[in-house]
Specification:
Blueprint: E1 28-29, H1 32-38, E2 56-58, E3 66-70, E4 75-77, H2 104-114, H3 119-128, H4 134-137, H5 145-160, H6 175-178
Antiparallel strand pairs: 1-2, 2-3, 3-4
The protein binds zinc ion.
């Protein structure tokens, strides 16, 4: 039997098992170690060995309350998590980058103060310097740059929206009439 194509023992990634039980979206793989760092339950917090067994995934659907789930149907929701999760919140103060606390608000402030933002290249430099600890600071357990790119886009969109103009149409002072 040809064994050069080890099809019989190839690990087949099952999309159905990585689908969020709550919303059906395909989740992002996350380590049980990371999960254990973000759970409120004191029996599970920092106790990776006590987590329900299975492969862990994170649901990134903003409107879905489930944050972590396993291929065996276990779910942890937003209320089970110690921090606000960027993917799940509309609050612009929630960090997109947890290592250096960059959020839509901090990026907007940077753009207002300096005319632009180099947050992506700053984080890139930190990554290259080995200072990123996304595995332990970010509930998704992986690099935040995708989120930060989205946060920059949101910040720019927010700032490009026209500021509410208080229209005062009472400027037509009828000088000509009064001086007549
Ligand atoms: Zn979901």
């Amino acid at each position: 039997m040809p064994n050069d194509q080890d099809e019989c023992c190839k690990v087949v990634f099952s999309a159905t098992k990585s689908k969020c039980p709550a919303c059906g979206a395909v989740g992002k793989s996350v380590s049980s170690f990371t999960v254990s760092l973000f759970l409120r339950d004191p029996r599970l917090y920092l106790h990776e060995e006590s987590l329900p067994p299975g492969s862990y995934y994170m649901c990134e659907t903003r409107s879905c309350p489930t944050v972590y789930f396993t291929d065996r149907g276990v779910q942890f929701s937003k209320t089970d998590i110690r921090v606000k999760v960027w993917q799940k919140e509309d609050d612009p103060k929630v960090p997109a980058c947890y290592c250096f606390d960059n959020s839509v608000v901090t990026i907007q402030n940077e753009i207002i103060q300096t005319g632009g933002t180099d947050v992506i290249s700053r984080i890139g430099a930190e990554v290259r310097a080995g200072n990123c600890r996304c595995e332990v600071t970010n509930p998704q357990g992986s690099c935040c740059l995708g989120n930060v790119t989205k946060a920059v886009k949101i910040a720019k969109e927010n700032l490009s929206q026209p500021a509410p103009v208080v229209s005062s149409k009472k400027t037509n002072v009828s000088l000509s009439e009064s001086t007549l």
